Amino acid sequence: MPSPSPVDPFSFFGHSLWIKRDDLLPEPFSGNKGRKFASLLADSFDGVQTLIGYGSPQSNSLYSLAALASRRGWQLEFYVDHIAASIYRGEEGNYGGALALGATVITVPEPNISPREYIESIRLKQMDADACLYVPEGGRCALARRGVHTLGREIADWAAARGVAHLNVFLPSGTGTTALYLSEYFHQQHCDIRVVTCPVVGDGDYLFDQFAELSADSHIYPEVVGDAHHYAKLKRDELEIWLAMRRQGLEFELLYDPCGLLVLKSLLDANAEGNWLYLHQGGLRGNVSMLPRYRRKFAQLFERDVA
Ligand SMILES: *Cc1c(COP(=O)(O)O)cnc(C)c1O
């Protein structure tokens, strides 16, 4: 087990905020996917030769699964809907980095079938069940529980050591897996720590459905705030808050954090009681493939910035 990621104090629009720096965990297993895939790295999986996943060809999941497969000597098959001709191929991005690690990225060969359906109804049936390991999108499965509970323990230990009471942990959600398992851990341990999240993909109802896929026990669910959100299309105020953080020396990723930071700001502006910790979930590798588009679209916002 690597040592706990650090927690830094941060001045967030006049509010004091703690930031849990999972972005500083050692590469290539830093950030959210490093936590969720920790048991895939550590456990023994006798006979497994192929790891199967799906999602976006630019995703953090693709890169993290590729790194994991390469470390374990497995072949990664990663299914996608579509690969844009203009996809960013540099090795410092998720896609190019995954190819360099030996991943096979496959466009679903049947028309009108999603990657998930293709894997579950066709591909897995062609394979020897013991030789492959299938990870649903974004690690939305019980395999993620242990790694996220480790994160929960780090936060609880830190709060106890510092005497931080009534802690609120905030993080933006995609599948909601991380927020759910964190909240579950704090409930199981009877910690005075509450998990608050916002939906970045879809709306609050979608997020509750995701929680329900992982746990039937609704009293452990995280608190959900914020409105439905357009994934992967940053609005001006989202890019502004991302740039403001970068000017303060903290770089965030561009899919989840801008939305999360804006929702957190409006929460704290309305009522800043208690102690708040924002979970920095890494994923900066994806930024190189997204920044050029935003730089063109919002050129004036970037003028004040050097890089
Ligand atoms: C995958 C990811 C998320 C979303 O995590 P969920 O557990 O799916 O909610 C958030 N932030 C980053 C940086 C990610 O890579």
UniProtKB/TrEMBL annotation:
Record key words, sorted: Pyridoxal phosphate
Pfam families named among the record's database cross-references: PALP (PF00291)
Presence of the UniProt keyword Transferase in the record: no
The protein's required cofactors: pyridoxal 5'-phosphate
One of the record's GO molecular function terms: D-cysteine desulfhydrase activity
Modified residues annotated as N6-(pyridoxal phosphate)lysine in this record: 33
InterPro entries: ACCD_DCysDesulf, TrpB-like_PALP, TrpB-like_PALP_sf
SUPFAM superfamilies assigned: Tryptophan synthase beta subunit-like PLP-dependent enzymes
Source taxon at top rank: Bacteria
Stretches assigned to the Tryptophan synthase beta chain-like PALP domain: 13-267
Catalytic residue list: 59 (nucleophile)
Family designation: Belongs to the ACC deaminase/D-cysteine desulfhydrase family.
UniProt protein name: Tryptophan synthase beta chain-like PALP domain-containing protein
